[in-house]
Design brief:
Keywords: Signal. By secondary structure, this protein is an alpha+beta fold. It is built from 4 helices and 13 strands. A hairpin with a 2-residue loop joins strand 9 and strand 10. The chain starts with a helix and ends in an 8-residue tail after the last strand.
Length: 198
């Protein structure tokens, strides 16, 4: 059993590297779902912002990367990249994993897109024990965060069950001001109509 767990962990940890080397077929081969920006970039293996999301035995592994000066000409200073888990295919009422550059450091946190209005509520009122942050890094060329989240996430007394309810992935990027998430400045991407359980 320990050997099987080790293999699963190695596959999950190598998900982003496998995608970068082999494109979207590698995501499927390791049981990951990938979504990126600009739109259509997953098919061409040319994403400036990429989320590689895969199930683990106890949760969901998220690997977010953003690169500067690609097709989108992003500056990574005071920038966030994020992937949301949507039951509707839209941005509202969705738990979100944010990765942001703040003061020269990469920070990952669990946030929430408001259920009826187009804004992100931030991490302050969300139990951050539902996310375990792994490796994070930022330099002038790349921003990246790895994190594991619970399969069941509770926000404002609502339970989002990623293991039994189908979700699509929504990916977006934009600026932040002193850690406050501002509106995205690039049109978001989505895995919809593809919706999966993790």
């Amino acid at each position: 059993m320990a050997g099987l767990i080790s293999v699963v962990v190695l596959l999950v940890l190598s998900a982003a590297g496998a995608y970068a080397a082999a494109g979207p077929a590698a995501c499927s081969a390791i049981g990951a779902l990938c979504v990126g920006l600009p739109s259509g970039c997953v098919d061409t293996n040319a994403c400036d912002v990429l989320a590689v999301v895969s199930p683990t035995p106890t949760g969901v592994h998220v690997n977010l990367t953003g690169k500067a000066l690609g097709a989108l000409k992003l500056s990574l200073a005071n920038r966030w990249i994020a992937v949301g888990f949507s039951e509707s295919g839209g941005m509202l009422n969705a738990p979100v994993v944010h990765c942001l550059e703040q003061g020269g450091k990469a920070i990952a946190e669990l946030t929430f897109n408001h259920p009826t209005e187009h804004f992100n509520t931030g991490p302050a009122k969300i139990d951050q024990s539902q996310i375990k942050v792994g490796k994070t890094s930022v330099d002038g060329a790349m921003l990246s965060c790895e994190a594991d989240i619970n399969k069941k996430i509770t926000i404002d007394d609502k339970v989002f069950d990623l293991g039994t309810t189908k979700h699509s992935l929504i990916i977006a990027t934009g600026p932040h001001k002193d850690g406050t998430i501002m509106a995205h400045d690039v049109d978001p991407g989505t895995s919809a109509p593809l919706m999966v359980t993790f």
